[in-house]
Design goal:
The protein has 13 helices and 2 strands, in the order E-E-H-H-H-H-H-H-H-H-H-H-H-H-H. The chain has 285 residues and is mainly alpha-helical. A two-stranded antiparallel ribbon has the order 1-2. Strand 1 (3-7) and strand 2 (10-14) form a beta hairpin. Helix 4 crosses helix 10 and helix 5 (114-123) crosses helix 7.
C-alpha cells in the first residue's frame, strides 16, 4: 500500500506499485458505476433512428433539447413530480417517526413482549409487495383515489427495515445517559427527543434515503390505487409516455433524467451518513 511520509508541509503519500493498482481498480469501478448515468443523459438527447441505429452508446450527433421541451409541454410531468414529492415526503417523515419510537420502545424499554413485537415487525421483510396487493386494495377501498392510499402501504413496507436498522443502532447507546437524565427528573419523552434522537441521526438519514428510494420509484401501488390523472405519481407519468403502437424514446429518457436528479442530489449529500450508520449498526448490533 501507499506509504505516508511527514514533511514540513504535512503528510505526503508515497506512490507505490500496489497503490497504483488499487487506485486504478477503484477508477475502473467508478467508471462502470457512472456509465449508466452518462448513457441515460445522452439517451435523453437522441432520436429514435439514432437510438436504434449505429449510435446507441456514443454522444448524440444532434442534441435534441426538444425532447425536454416535449416532456414539460406535452405531458403533466410537473403535476406528477409534485405528487411524488408530496407522497414521498410524508412517507419519509411519518415512517421515520413511527420507526424511531417503535425501535426505542423495543430496545430501550423493558417489557414482556418486546422481542415478540420486534419479530413481528421483521416478518414484514418477508412479505412480497405483489402478494399484498389484493388485500390492500380491499382494505383501502374507502380511501382509494387519494394519496392516503399510497402513503399508508408505503409506510407499512418501510417500517420493518427501518426498525431493523434503528434497533441495531440504538442497542449500542450506553444506558447510563438515560439513567442520569431520569435521575434529574426528565420524562421518557424528553429523554427520547433530547438524548436519543440526536445520537441516531446517521441511522435516521439511512432509513430516510431507503424509504425515499422505495416510495419515489414505486409503480405497482400507484397504478392500482390511483385512477385520477391529477393524483398520479412520477413513475406512472413516465410509463404513460410509452405509446400503444409507436414510442418516441428520447422524451422518455428526458423524463427519466428528471426523475433521477433528486435521487442523485440526495445521495451525494447523505452517502457518508449511510456508511456511518450501517457500519455502526453492524458493530453495535
Amino acid at each position: 500500500m501507499a506509504k505516508k511520509e511527514k514533511t514540513t508541509s504535512g503528510v505526503v503519500t508515497k506512490v507505490t506499485p500496489s497503490y497504483i493498482i488499487v487506485q486504478s481498480i477503484l477508477i475502473i469501478f467508478a467508471c462502470i458505476q457512472l456509465f449508466p448515468l452518462l448513457w441515460l443523459l445522452t439517451f435523453s438527447f437522441k432520436s429514435n433512428p439514432e437510438l436504434f441505429g449505429d449510435n446507441i452508446i456514443g454522444l448524440p450527433r444532434e442534441w435534441l433539447w426538444s425532447n425536454y421541451q416535449q416532456v414539460f409541454t406535452g405531458t403533466r410531468i410537473g403535476t406528477y413530480f409534485l405528487n411524488s414529492v408530496f407522497v414521498t415526503t410524508l412517507t419519509v417523515i411519518i415512517a421515520g417517526f413511527f420507526s424511531a419510537t417503535a425501535s426505542y420502545a423495543i430496545t430501550r424499554m423493558r417489557w414482556r413482549f418486546s422481542k415478540t413485537v420486534y419479530t413481528v415487525f421483521l416478518l414484514g421483510l418477508m412479505i412480497p409487495v405483489h402478494s399484498a396487493l389484493l388485500p390492500l386494495f380491499i382494505t383501502l377501498k374507502p380511501v382509494l383515489n387519494s394519496h392516503i392510499a399510497l402513503i399508508i402501504p408505503y409506510i407499512g413496507f418501510a417500517m420493518p427495515l427501518s426498525i431493523l436498522i434503528l434497533s441495531g443502532f440504538m442497542g449500542g447507546i450506553p444506558r447510563e445517559m438515560e439513567e442520569a437524565a431520569f435521575i434529574d427528573g426528565a420524562s421518557i419523552y424528553k429523554v427520547f427527543s433530547v438524548i436519543i434522537l440526536p445520537l441516531i441521526k446517521p441511522a435516521l438519514a439511512t432509513i430516510s434515503i431507503l424509504t425515499y428510494l422505495s416510495s419515489w420509484n414505486e409503480l405497482m401501488f400507484g397504478i392500482t390505487f390511483i385512477n385520477k390523472e391529477a393524483l398520479k405519481t412520477l413513475p406512472y407519468g413516465i410509463m404513460s409516455m410509452v405509446g400503444r403502437y409507436t414510442t418516441n424514446w428520447g422524451p422518455i429518457g428526458a423524463g427519466l433524467v428528471i426523475a433521477t436528479i433528486p435521487t442523485i442530489i440526495l445521495y451525494v449529500f447523505m452517502s457518508e451518513q449511510i456508511q456511518q450508520s450501517l457500519s455502526a449498526g453492524a458493530v453495535k448490533g
